[in-house]
Amino acid sequence: MPDFVDEAVLQLKAGDGGHGCASVHREKFKPLGGPDGGNGGRGGDVVLEVDPQVATLLEYQRRPHRKARNGTPGQGGHRSGANGEDLVLGVPDGTVVTGPDGELIADLVGVGTRLIVAQGGVGGLGNAALASPRRKAPGFALKGEEGESIEVKLEIKTIADVGLVGFPSAGKSSLIAALSAARPKIADYPFTTLIPNLGVVEAGATQYVVADVPGLIPGASEGKGLGLSFLRHVERCSTLVHVLDCATYEQGRDPVSDLESIEAELRAYGERTEIDLTDRPRIVVLNKVDVPDGRELAEFVTPMLQERGLKVIAVSAATREGLRELSFAMAEQVAAARAAAPTPEPTRVVLRPREIGEIPFEVVPLGDNTFRVRGDKTARWVRQTDFSNDEAVGYLADRLNRLGIEEALAKAGATEGAEVYIGTEEDSVVFDWDPSVDAEATPIGPRGTDSRLG
Description:
Residues 353-435 form the OCT domain. Pfam families: DUF1967, GTP1_OBG, MMR_HSR1. Residues 2-159 form the Obg domain. By secondary structure, this protein is an alpha/beta fold. The protein is built from ten helices and 20 strands. The chain folds into three domains: 1-156, Spo0b-associated Gtp-binding Protein, Chain: A (Distorted Sandwich); 162-340, Rossmann fold, CATH 3.40.50; 362-450, GTP-binding protein OBG, C-terminal domain (GMP Synthetase, Chain A, domain 3, 2-Layer Sandwich), CATH 3.30.300. Strands 10-11-9-12-13-14 form a six-stranded mixed sheet, with helices on both faces. The chain has a five-stranded mixed sheet with strand order 3-1-8-5-6. It has a five-stranded mixed sheet with strand order 16-17-18-19-20, with helices on one face.
C-alpha cells in the first residue's frame, strides 16, 4: 500500500453522556437526608485538527472507525461523572471535509485549525438536580444522551504556490529536485511519480512551495491515468507551470500539442468541479534542452508559444540551464498573487452549532386516531427517560404537557385512546393518550431499534 493517501472515509462516533444517579443521602440520625445523586459526565467530542506533522490520510484509510470516550455515570454524594476525553484526529493542512451527500462541512487550512465534527452526548441529570418543591425526593434520574454519529470524507488539496503540470516523464520531478531540497523518485518510465511532490524554493526574498502533479494525460479529467486523483492538488496553486518535453520520441507528440492537451484537461476539470483554473498565470518550461534535438525543437516552438502571450523559458534539469531564470519568474508570479490576496485569517476553531427550530414540536396526523409528535426537544426527552421507572415516565408526561402537546393533540383531532408516537419512524415510543391523566401516562412500550428507549 502506498505511503501517501489523499482520500479517506471515516465513520465517527462521539462519546455517550453518562447516566445521572438516583441516590438518597443516608446518614445515622438523619432519616431525611434528601436526594444526592450526581449528574452524568459529557461524552467526548470528535475533533479534526490541522497538524503539521501529518502529511497523509493513510492511517485513517487503515482504521476508518473512530470513537470518542463516553462520560461516566454520576454517583451519590453529589458526585458528578467525569467528562469523556475528546478524540482529536490530526489531518494535513488543506484537508477538505465533506458529508455523506457531498456537502461541504469545512475546509481546514492553517496549522491549529479545529473542527468539532461530532458532538458528545449530554450527561443525564441526577435526582439532586431534578428535585423541586413538587417533587422533593425524585426516585429517578435522567439517562445520558448518545453522542453524534457521522460519516465524513476527508480529501487533501495540497497547499502549494506553484503547480507543475505536464505529461508523464516530462521532467517535473527532476525540476523539483533541481530547484529544491526535495528528492522525489526519478526514472525513465511513465507514471514514476505516484504522489504529489513538494519542494521549497527561494528566489531572492521570496520563498514559495512548488508541487508537481503526476499522471496528467488526455482524458485525465474523465478518470484516465492518475490525473483525476491528483488534479485537485492544483486548485490551491496561484501559478501553473507547463513542463513540456522537448526530447520525447513518442509519435504524435510535440510541445505545442502537449500544451493544448493539458490545457483541455484543466478546462474539463474546471467544468466538472466548477473551479475555474483558466485565470491562473501560466509559465511554459521547455525542458531537456541539453539534448541537441531538444534545443532545436525548443527554439522552433518558442515564437509560437510567445504569440499566445505565454512566458517561455528553456531549461535543463540535468545541466541546471535556465533554472535561475525560472525560479525568479515563478517568484515574481507568486509575489504578485500574494500581494493581491486578502489578508489571511488567523487560525480558527470551526464550530457546527446545532440547528434550533422556531417550533419546538409538531403534531402530524397519521389517520385512525394515530398521531406522531416530531421535534428535537421531545425526542431528546424521550431518550433521557428510563421507562422501567414509573416515576420517570410520569416526569416525562409532565414535561410534555407543559410544552403544550396535549393541547396540540386536541386541536389536531385526537380523542381518548389515540396512539401517539414520539420520535422519527425509525426511533419512536408510542403512548395511549388519555387527556384526563396528567403525570400517570403509561407507555405501551418502545418501538424502533433504539435500545435506549427500553
